[in-house]
Write a structure and sequence with these properties.
- The chain is an alpha/beta fold and about 280 residues long.
- It is built from nine helices and eight strands.
């Protein structure tokens, strides 16, 4: 593993020192204006069909949307799922078999209901930023995560303050969480799934009072992400490494980079326990 990572680090270093269009080209997607909430409630004039309720929707560029399952007003446990690389509005609304956050929101609520039928929960799918399109230059940099973090902070601060809040990031979404962490004292737990790094060397560097969790499935290729940052590339320490200091939990039979929201999995069961505040029941890795 160390040999493979050394090769990846060497390759990144070669790109940084050698320049080239992949390294120096401008981001093809300039920042979009702030995503505004939809007027009204479920009757807002949106022409797309979704299984949840849209809180915000913007078709410009790759598109952005915020969708909620459950009642935010009544909830006492709220989770916000932040998707990562490759997710855009079209893919979110159409759904996908791979790491689908919309399906994941539904699975998580069902799992929480199974653990505690009396629990009042809501799960938000927050695609309020322009995620990198692919494993490209933007995915190795942090500009989109920084812009996403600003938007995420604004959204979280508008949530009901009486609810227990958990933020769950997947892949590049964990970089967004890392960038937002110090500005979100309202959050009880931060969860990094399949993270390339959170732009921090350790939990202490995140500047958060929240409990920080991390998980990575067996064979997930994200493990090859170099634990460095050079010339603005890379996202620093692997959150599942001992030196980072996160509470690592098991994912069971999950394999690869996707599937962390698979129904009935140890991954989903542990996520539900975290959101419900049942940390003592989480199976540690």
């Amino acid at each position: 593993m160390k040999t493979v990572k050394a090769f990846v680090v060497s390759s990144v270093f070669s790109l940084v020192t050698g320049g080239g269009s992949w390294l120096t080209g401008v981001d093809p997607h300039p920042p979009l204006p702030a995503l505004r909430p939809l007027p009204g409630t479920a009757s807002a004039p949106v022409t797309v069909r979704t299984p949840g309720r849209l809180l915000a929707y913007d078709p410009r560029g790759d598109g952005r949307a915020i969708e909620v399952f459950g009642s935010l007003r009544a909830a006492r446990h709220i989770a916000v799922l932040v998707p990562g690389t490759g997710w855009d509005l079209n893919k979110l609304l159409k759904g996908s078999r791979n790491a689908d956050p919309v399906r994941g929101a539904q699975v998580l609520r069902a799992q929480m209901a199974a653990l505690d039928p009396s629990a009042r929960t809501a799960v938000v799918v927050w695609l309020g930023y322009d995620a990198p399109e692919d494993i490209d230059r933007q995915a190795f940099r942090s500009e989109r995560a920084a812009a996403g973090a600003r938007a995420l902070v604004s959204f979280v601060r508008a949530l009901p303050d009486r609810a227990r809040l958990t933020l769950v990031g997947h892949s590049y979404g964990t970089v967004v969480l890392g960038r937002a962490a110090s500005r979100l004292p309202e959050v009880s737990d931060l969860v990094a799934l399949a993270s390339p790094g959170m732009d921090a060397g350790s939990v202490a560097d995140l500047g958060t009072g929240a409990r920080v969790w991390a998980a990575r499935a067996s064979g997930d290729p994200i493990r090859l992400s170099p634990d460095v940052r050079m010339a603005g590339y890379g996202h620093l320490t692997d959150p599942v490494s001992p030196e980072f200091g996160a509470a690592v939990f098991r994912t069971g039979g999950i394999r690869g980079h996707n599937g962390y929201y698979r129904p009935g999995s140890e991954s989903v069961l542990n996520l539900a326990r975290i959101i419900l505040g049942r940390a003592g029941e989480v199976t540690r890795g």
